[in-house]
Amino acid sequence: MLFSHPQFNGYNNSLYKDLRITVIIPCLNEEQGIEKVLRRMPAFVDDVIVVDNGSTDRTAEVAESFGAKVIREHVRGYGRAYKRGFSEATGDIIITLDGDHSYPPDAISYLLEAFLHLQVDFLNASRFPVRDREAMSFKHKFGNFVLSLAMSLLYFRWVRDSQSGMWVFRRSILEGFVLESDGMAFSEEIKIEALRSSNVRFSEISILYTSRLGEIKLNPWRDGFFNLYFLAKKRFAPWRR
Ligand SMILES: Nc1nc2c(ncn2[C@@H]2O[C@H](COP(=O)(O)OP(=O)(O)OP(=O)(O)O)[C@@H](O)[C@H]2O)c(=O)[nH]1
Ligand SMILES: [Mg+2]
Q1: Mean pLDDT for back-to-back runs of 10 residues, the chain (241 residues)
Q2: Probe ligand 1: pick from 23, 62, 78, 148, max atoms within 8 Å of CB?
Q3: Is the beta carbon of 79 within 6 A of some atom in ligand 1?
Q4: Which residues fall within 8 angstroms of residue 100, CB to CB, at 6 or more apart?
Q5: How many C-beta atoms surround the C-beta of residue 162 within 10 A?
Q6: Whole domain around residue 50: which residue ranges?
Q7: Which ligand lies nearest to the CA atom of residue 136 in the structure?
Q8: Residue 129: inside a domain, yes or no?
Q9: Considering the domain boundaries, does residue 67 fall inside one?
Q10: Number of structural domains the chain divides into
């Protein structure tokens, strides 16, 4: 059938248009979500890395049972998990998403097509416009809008979703990136690095975002204000590069 993918079942080494694809998923207690995400993982993905930050549920077991490589990172944090995942990745292309089943694994194929067609190095999957009424509260939509507007103004480039957790990029671009955040601000930091690098072409397209399974890890007020502060700090401290 045209739009269905055979299920991901471990390392199959089937290249996607001569490219090795690594998917990285940070997880903190996502046993429900990770199962659904891995069930929907396209078969052309060469490896899936789940970075587990000390989950106390069955996240690691479930991920392993689907053939994912589980890396245990003992220091907590979303950014910390990604940096660890990047250091273990071998693919030409890295794709990221949450373990909570809010980002669609089915979108991976069209994101890859768009990535290749647009000839970019970093493609951000925007959650906007949000079509599923349950997926995001008004407070989160407003917070996301403020943060994306702030990033757009500070970096002179319209970014619709500065907080999206789904990206497609060439692994080689990481070499020039300065990634300091260990926490939730990592998501905006990697986009800032992509926007700032003259050799990195950046683009953004929409995906269908749905409500998460399991418990939210984000603390909206604390993370929201900290991310705003982080944006400004990174913008006005260029000497730190
Ligand atoms: N490894 C690791 N993963 C984390 C940590 N905190 C959050 N995550 C994962 O990072 C992803 C994003 O966290 P979420 O709680 O979904 O935050 P969010 O996506 O901004 O919020 P929602 O839109 O409500 O899902 C999820 O897969 C979490 O399990 C952490 O400290 N370590
Ligand atoms: Mg999420």
Answers
A1: 48 78 98 98 97 96 98 96 98 98 97 98 98 94 97 97 98 97 98 97 98 91 96 82 53
A2: 78
A3: no
A4: 30, 33, 212, 213, 214
A5: 25
A6: 21-235
A7: 1
A8: yes
A9: yes
A10: 1
| Residues by chain with Cβ below 5 Å of ion ligand 2 | 98, 100, 102, 212
- Residue 119 sits in a domain whose CATH number is 3.90.550.10
Query: Would the CB of 213 count as within 6 Å of ligand 1?
Result: no
Q: Quick one: tokens of 129?
A: 């416009």
pLDDT at residue 15, rounded to an integer: 81
Domain membership of residue 7 (yes or no) is no
Q: Kindly state if the Cβ of 83 falls inside 6 Å of ligand 1.
A: no
Total residues belonging to the chain: 241
Give the three-state DSSP class for 100.
coil
pLDDT at 8: 56
Q: Which atom of ligand 1 is nearest to the CA of 30?
A: 29
| Side-chain half-sphere exposure of 128, counting CA atoms within 13 A | 16
Q: Which residues in 40-63 are b (16+ Cβ under 10 Å) and which e?
A: bbbebbbbbbbbbbebebbbbebb
Residue 216 CB less than 6 A away from ligand 1: yes
C-alpha of residue 151 to centroid of ligand 1, in Å: 21
Q: How far is the CA of 82 from the centre of ligand 2 (A)?
A: 14
Is residue 240, in this structure, part of any structural domain at all?
no
